[in-house]
Design goal:
Length: about 300
């Protein structure tokens, strides 16, 4: 019976698929000890050695070091506890590898310089606290001092990246690119101007619905015209510009005159920065949101249509 059978190293190697050299190595370190010696002095092992060696091979494949393995097979350590500790360590390694993969992929795809690569690497490796400080600094720079009403609170939430604990490569890349935008003083200034415009419009007495309604009006008026191939300078665009101006005049509580058209154009131009669209695209990737609809083409069309009529 197997329980009474003793095996030489060669026989043990055939049963386990390990090499004689490997088994001898484990034996010399006391992980799989012989139970006897042959008359010629060769080491002999019992059936328990087969099970120990199979466990050792599995644990080695999983990345455990030999001292830990010895303590596990000798039952000095609990295998579940060891597995939990190593799983946690592997999770950290996986995150590091994902960060490296994301940075290297971005370097290759975007043909980054050495300086840009260094910045991307640093941004990718920020701790959670460092990320939150960067996010908070950006949002404070944009909204600080403009009021704490619910409208601004909602906009602030909609502009907050929340990278998950185990992000995918594309989320890491999106986070780094978002951070680059957030650190750009010119982009901060552009977003700040939009926030100040919104605050000023609210202060003039109209609605909390301005951001949503104005964007919807531009989309609903300019979008179909753009799709139909109507040029901003054509007479077919006249009623569209009139509708946009009427809506904005109502929002501001003032007549549709030259000054109103100037303000309308400034409002339209303020949201045609392509970085604004990019900002929300990156946020969607980071936060796992659906890809946002780009309003840039409609706003570009509307801005040009208003500008042409102001120059006439």
């Amino acid at each position: 019976m197997d329980g009474d059978t003793l095996y030489s190293i060669g026989e043990l190697a055939r049963r386990t698929g390990l090499t004689v050299k490997t088994i001898r190595f484990y034996s010399d370190r006391g992980i799989v000890a012989p139970v006897d010696r042959s008359p010629a002095g060769y080491r002999l092992y019992d059936i328990d050695a087969v099970a120990r060696l199979e466990l050792v091979r599995t644990l080695r494949d999983l990345g455990l070091d030999l001292p830990t393995i010895r303590r596990v097979v000798d039952r000095e350590l609990s295998l579940p506890e060891v597995a939990a500790a190593h799983a946690e360590a592997l999770a950290v390694q996986i995150r590091v590898l994902r960060l490296r993969h994301a940075v290297l992929t971005a370097v290759a795809e975007r043909a980054l310089t050495a300086e840009e690569t260094d910045l991307m690497h640093k941004l990718a490796q920020l701790s959670e606290d460092e990320r939150q400080r960067l996010i908070g600094d950006f949002l404070d720079a944009v909204f600080g001092g403009l009021g704490a009403d619910s409208a601004f609170a909602g906009v602030r939430r909609s502009m907050t990246p929340e990278i998950p604990d185990n992000p995918e490569t594309q989320q890491i890349q999106a986070w780094v690119q978002w951070a680059e935008l957030a650190l750009d003083p010119d982009f901060r200034a552009s977003v700040r101007r939009m926030a100040e415009d919104h605050a000023a419009e609210q202060a003039q007495g109209d609605t909390m619905r301005l951001r949503r309604d104005f964007a919807a009006v531009v989309r609903d008026q300019a979008g179909p015209a753009l799709a139909a191939g109507i040029t901003p300078a054509s007479h077919q665009a006249d009623p569209i510009v009139a509708a946009l101006a009427a809506h904005y005049a109502h929002v501001l509580g003032r007549p549709d005159d030259a000054e109103l058209r100037r303000l309308l154009l400034l409002r339209l131009d303020s949201v045609t920065d392509p970085r604004w669209d990019r900002h929300f695209q990156l946020l969607a990737v980071i936060n796992g949101w659906p890809a946002p609809e780009s309003l840039a083409p409609a706003f570009d069309w509307a801005a040009e249509a208003v500008r042409v009529r102001m120059d006439r």
